[in-house]
Design brief:
The structure holds two protein chains of two kinds. Chain A contains 22 helices and 23 strands. Chain A is α+β, with helices and mostly antiparallel strands. In chain A, a hairpin with a 4-residue loop joins strand 11 and strand 12. The chains are: A alpha+beta, B mainly alpha.
């Protein structure tokens, strides 16, 4: 034994003991630090770590027509997804090639979503085919981070297109997402146009939440607290539309190869029975992610199929505007039933001669409407004065939005003194500018919807209703269970006698010696007015506005067919077919239905 | 197998009245409890993994096997240990060579020999073999630790297995060997100056990793100590040069480490470095233990554990289960048990009247202490992540059985504490 060993065993033991104590104390202190002092912090991290909040998409509300036929439904579709965290970017060319994506699209998406969690899957393409799903399944192992998800897409089971009315949904834009962060997340589909957009809030429902435990790899391993904390999704409200599916379908067929619009309204409450704008597009193209080719095609189409002619296109109303001219004069006592103005084939004003369609001789207001005498109305607007005419035009909703429940609407143009002062300069326009307004030409611009609202007001004796396409929303899961869309209308200060005379004139247009006598329907009294809107770019546009039955109007309609020439020849027969179908054929159907039920 | 078991039984009956005198109950019970807690933790952490839950039963089998072997070791005559040292050492070296050729790779380390139903880990066994071999050397009458010959002999005995283990890229175990080396030398009278010469280059190298200023301070410290010892100028300069080159070599050493080991060290120095990569385990382990709080989340209720946030938790990160599911109370309880084990071992080392036996025990202490401190330290962010198991708790048959043999040896020595063998 060495001397060192004999001298210091005690010291050596002490050093080792001391070291042991120091090591254990440091472990103990560190444990105290993280388990007691910093416990809360780690606890939070651990919860965040292990619990994943999964969003459960609610069903989007279904659209029914007024007779409970399903017009817009949901159907499951497959969506290609990429989870950036697990995704191998060398797979991009393979995916882009197989799914025929635009080169660079995936890279762009990955870059654009860099700020979001890499664990949130990105939707790449909706509406995968069965073949594509099989391919994904077969190559699962070779495609890390690539999968597909079943989600709901819109379907249109009834064959009604109504592209401009229903509208479509689209993936939420960055800007919109910024504004509504609390409701939406990246990749959500939101109503982008039409009713889908206007009633987005009702239709979308409330997202559900499911809390699941995930392991370190983000794989779900089970529900948290047996699912007790989960929040069930609430489906969106289903909508009962005011639209008549069958009538809409027929209207679409009648206008199929034409350019124009049809709006039919229930004159008793402003419910839209039909709203068609042609050419249109197939909404099912938008149900899944729209291929760029379709987008390009729709956007570059000269006929502008994406454009809603019924609410956003302005035309001169032509003769259809004459009844307003008449109403202004009658209501304010400028003329009466007996007032007669002679038509010698035209109207001279200043050094200009305004031509009439014929030489009508002396006509009172009723027959002036019946024959659509230009001379009478050229003179009448001057008799009325510009301001009065404008006032009555505004009264019937022209120059302003109707308030229909879609956003794609414009107010049109109703000339006024201010309007002319603005465009021509004060004192730089003369009464001559006003004369052609008397027959609905000139700077006057109206939408087919405004025309339908206006003819409805005449039909119902003078109440202007806000047109709307949804009657009510209902959802047994939600609170409130039902949301009735209120009927909003205002009674116009028009005397009954004045209204009666105008209506008589319109009755004779169809039933007398007027311009639309071929619209007569046996057993139903139809009243109406044709119009020809001068089109500086080509053939005139043909108008017809009307309502029926005359005694108790159930339908008011406005039809415009672009480049169709004279209104009575093209637009009126379309209106006739629709009125006939709605009032006659359908009544039979409904009676048959009722008989079956009993 | 049957015979010694029977013998033990008879013997234990015979000495029943003296059990408390012969058996170190503190050491026995605390070791036993640690094994039980280890089993419970493995049970919990593998419960949700059907294909790995079998690990619990494997570990249970090894614990029972270890108990049986332990009974044999406990009853061996004292001289057997010294006699077995050389053959055991040679066998373990052979196993370490074999593993290099036919070894199975597990997460970057190549240190398993597959023999049918289980994998043998020679590096675990070699720890005990080296301890016995070194003790055998220390107990020689003519051995002088402060002689060049003595020092070189000891160094060689440790260096052979240590180098073989480094070749397996198992840095953790290599560190344990260094600890065995130091403790043995220190216990057997290595001068303070020599200890300083051995340790200072390591401290300098570690501090150099932290930057230039810590390096400078450590070098100044080395100079101060050298002046204190008043050795020859030539020797002092040589030692200073050794320290300086250690700092420089550490860069080269980094090249020798595998990338994931470098990342681990970098991550330890800067916790925000690569949180999803190499820092992930360390971070998740800390979250697991930290979220346990005072009383823990309860058995089988630790979210980090049950949801597998820590890969292979039942091996190197087993302490997380205790920390998360049994909280501060459970963690400290385990620490106390380990502390009792170390204290009792130290007591045995101190009271054993034999160089061989006290050397064996003191080096067993070095193994336990290093493993405990590094393993628990890494799960709570006190030490970089170095993959070594927690003694008696981590999953792994070779380690469990070897550790149990070491405890059995200590119990044997305690029982014979008054004998003069």
């Amino acid at each position: 034994m060495t001397p060192t060993r004999e001298i210091s065993p005690k010291v050596r033991t002490s050093i080792i003991s001391f070291m042991t104590i120091i090591l254990f104390l440091s472990l103990g202190f560190r444990l105290y630090q993280i388990q007691i002092i910093e416990n809360e912090k780690y606890q939070k991290t651990s919860e965040k770590n292990a619990i994943k909040e999964k969003i459960i998409e609610p069903y989007r509300g279904i659209f029914y027509d007024r007779n409970w036929k399903v017009l817009v439904d949901n159907q499951p579709g497959f969506t290609l997804r990429i989870t950036p965290y697990y995704f191998d970017t060398t797979l991009i060319p393979i995916l882009e090639n197989y799914f025929k994506l635009k080169p660079g699209y995936i890279k762009y998406l990955l870059k654009a979503n860099k700020n979001f969690s890499p664990f949130i899957p990105l939707r790449i393409q909706r509406g995968l085919t069965f073949e594509q799903i099989s391919w994904l399944e077969e190559n699962k192992e070779a495609l890390p981070g690539v999968d597909y998800k079943i989600d709901m897409q819109r379907s249109y089971p009834y064959g009604v297109r109504a592209s401009h009315l229903f509208g479509y949904c689209k993936e939420i834009s960055r800007k919109e997402l910024e504004e509504k962060k609390d409701v939406y997340i990246m990749g959500d589909f939101v109503g982008h146009s039409g009713l889908e957009k206007y009633y987005e809030e009702y239709l979308r429902g409330v997202k559900g939440k499911q809390f699941v435990y995930v392991d370190s790899k983000g794989r779900e391993v089970g529900p948290v607290n047996e699912g007790k904390n989960d929040v069930k999704p609430v489906s969106g409200y289903n909508a009962q539309l005011t639209i008549d599916g069958e009538l809409q379908k027929l209207a679409e067929e009648l206008l199929a190869d034409k350019s124009g619009a049809i709006v039919a309204i229930d004159p008793s409450n402003g419910e839209i029975l039909t709203l068609v704008s042609k050419p249109d597009f197939d909404l099912s193209d938008f149900a899944s992610l729209t291929p760029a080719s379709i987008w390009r095609q729709l956007n570059s189409d000269k006929n502008k199929p994406l454009f809603n002619r019924a609410t956003s296109s302005i035309y001169p109303p032509g003769s259809c505007f004459k009844p307003i001219n008449a109403l202004a004069a009658l209501n304010d006592g400028i003329i009466d039933e007996k007032y007669v103005y002679p038509c010698g084939g035209g109207f001279s004003f200043g050094n200009h001669f305004y031509k009439c369609m014929g030489t009508h001789g002396g006509l009172n207001v009723v027959h002036a409407i019946e024959k659509s005498c230009n001379t009478f109305f050229f003179s009448l607007i001057l008799k009325n004065g510009f301001e009065r005419w404008t006032k009555y035009g505004r009264m019937f909703g022209f120059g302003q939005k109707t308030g229909i429940d879609i956003y794609e609407e414009i107010s049109g143009i109703l000339p006024s003194v201010e309007f002319y002062d603005k465009i021509y300069g004060k004192g730089k326009w003369t009464k001559g500018y006003v004369v052609s307004l008397g027959v609905g030409q000139g700077e006057l611009g109206v939408t087919p919807l405004q025309m339908a609202v206006y003819v409805s007001a005449i039909a119902n004796g003078g109440t202007l209703y806000r047109p709307h396409a949804v009657r009510k929303f209902f959802n047994p899961e939600a609170d409130p269970k039902e949301i009735i869309i209120p009927i909003e209308g205002k009674k116009l200060p028009i005397k009954a006698e004045a209204m009666e005379l105008v209506k008589q004139g319109m009755f004779l247009v169809v039933n007398g010696a007027g311009t639309a006598t071929h619209v007569r329907i046996p057993g139903i009294n139809v009243a109406g007015k044709t119009g020809t809107a001068q089109n500086p770019h080509g053939k005139d546009h043909a108008w017809f506005i009307g309502f029926a039955p005359f005694e108790n109007p159930k339908i008011a309609i406005a039809v415009i067919v672009e480049n169709a020439g004279f209104g009575g020849a093209v637009a009126a027969p379309i209106a006739k077919r629709l009125i006939e179908f709605y009032l006659k054929d359908k009544t039979k159907d409904v009676q048959a239905l009722a008989a079956n039920k009993n | 197998m049957f015979k010694p078991w029977q013998q033990t039984k008879i013997k234990s009956e015979k000495i029943e009245g003296n059990l408390s005198r012969d058996l170190d109950l503190y050491l026995f019970i605390s070791s036993f409890l640690i094994i039980v807690i280890g089993l419970v933790s493995i049970y919990s952490s593998t419960y949700n993994l059907p294909y790995l839950h079998i690990n619990f039963y494997k570990q249970l089998t090894f614990a029972i096997l270890g108990l049986l072997l332990g009974l044999i070791v406990y009853n061996l005559p004292l001289k057997v240990f010294n006699l077995a040292a050389l053959p055991f050492y040679i066998i373990s070296i052979l196993l370490l060579v074999i593993v290099l050729f036919i070894g199975k790779k597990v997460s970057g380390n190549q240190n398993w020999i597959n023999i049918g139903f289980f994998s043998l880990q020679p590096s675990e066994i070699s720890k005990f073999a080296v301890i016995l071999m070194l003790s055998s050397i220390y107990s020689r009458k003519d051995f002088n630790v402060n002689s060049i010959k003595g020092f070189l002999t000891v160094s060689l005995i440790v260096a052979i297995p240590a180098m073989l283990i480094v070749l397996q890229k198992d840095i953790g175990t290599a560190i344990v060997f260094f600890s065995i080396f130091l403790f043995g030398l220190f216990w057997n009278g290595l001068s303070g100056f020599s200890v300083f010469v051995l340790i200072s280059p390591i401290i300098v190298a570690v501090l150099s990793l932290l930057g230039f200023i810590p390096l400078l301070i450590s070098l100044i410290f080395v100079i101060v100590v050298l002046i204190y010892f008043k050795k020859e100028l030539f020797l002092s300069l040589g030692i200073f040069g050794l320290n300086l080159s250690a700092a420089i070599l550490v860069e080269l050493f980094f090249k020798f480490l595998s990338p994931h080991q470098i990342n681990r060290i970098k991550n330890f120095l800067d916790p925000n470095y690569d949180p999803l990569g190499s820092g992930y385990n360390a971070l998740q382990a800390k979250i697991a233990v930290g979220s346990g709080g005072l009383f823990g989340k309860g058995f089988m209720s630790g979210s980090q554990t049950q949801l597998k946030f820590i890969p292979e938790q039942w091996t190197d990160f087993i302490f997380c289960v205790v920390g998360e599911e049994f909280g501060f109370v459970g963690s400290v309880f385990v620490l106390i048990l380990y502390f009792i084990v170390i204290s009792r071992l130290l007591y045995i080392a101190r009271t054993t009247d034999s160089v061989f036996r006290s050397s064996v025990i003191i080096m067993i202490i070095s193994v336990f202490l290093t493993h405990i401190f590094i393993n628990i330290g890494m799960t709570i962010g006190l030490v970089p992540v170095i993959g070594i198991p927690l003694p008696l708790m981590s999953y792994g048959g070779s380690a469990l059985v070897t550790n149990m043999m070491m405890i059995a040896t200590a119990l044997n020595f305690y029982r014979h504490r008054t004998s003069l063998a």
